[in-house]
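Chapter summary example.
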Amino acid sequence: MLRGILSHIIITAYGVKNEQKNDEYTLGLDEAIKCRSLFSRGKYDEFEELFLQLNSDNLTQVIDCISLSFNGSKLMDYFQAGKNKNIANLILGAFYNHQAWRIRTHGYAKDVSDEQAFGFYEFQEKSSERLFAVDELTSSLFIEAQSRLIRYSTGMGRIKDAKLFYRQVMEKAPENLWAHLHYCEVIQPKWGGNLGLISDLMDEIKLKRSIIQYIVELKLLLDSFTLGENYFGGSMEDLKVLSKRRLKEIDKAVSTNPPTSIHRYILYCYLYALADDVGNTRLTIKNSKKMEGYLTLYPYGVIR
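The structure predicted for these 304 residues follows.
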């Protein structure tokens, strides 16, 4: 199982080696590489101009790229010197949220120390303060902030708020992948959700673009294995049978119509991890190659 691997180690899967890349948070995206370069050199006007031209998928990736590539001092320098406070607050909100989870880790609550818990809540509150400061006048940035507030609310145990933020994003941007992924966490039993909510989401995503359908389903299948509960009903053996079938069907669909969104790497990571779980050697190798050495935040988390 590879979900817990750390940065810069070698991923080995049946003889296939992908060395973890130093620029993992750009995922090779030209816009992310350019934005990071401009930001690094303090060319904030040019950075903001390019940033505001990004489509929804690339916007999400660039925010994570910047917030994970620079320290808090550099980000505060941008907050002070940059002109667009919405962009600055959004990036700082993402930064503080990532810091919170770095401190807490993704272990079970019983394994989190008091010191970790205090640090987690402290950074979470800093994150929410910044995200709530993104105003509604810049709709694409506001939607991104609302999406990240789903994640914040879930981590703080405010499940009703998380569901509300999800619905607000769906009203304005029903094709926002990350809102779906954050909501996938909210509706799982570990956060107080249930199989009925999962079934409702599966019905809802049938109307979405294919990459959202595939990633959401693969996440729920993989999480079912991790937590030892079949979210799709039936036994764990039924889950394995379903997973093997859906892997083949999704692989066929993706091979016929390859996704072009930067989120394709999330898809390949989930295909890889699930294929590894059920012992499908062919798809493990195939998707290991497609990952190109990148490990996405879903399903792997912050990796350095």
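To summarize the output: The chain has two domains: 1-27+207-304, 29-186.
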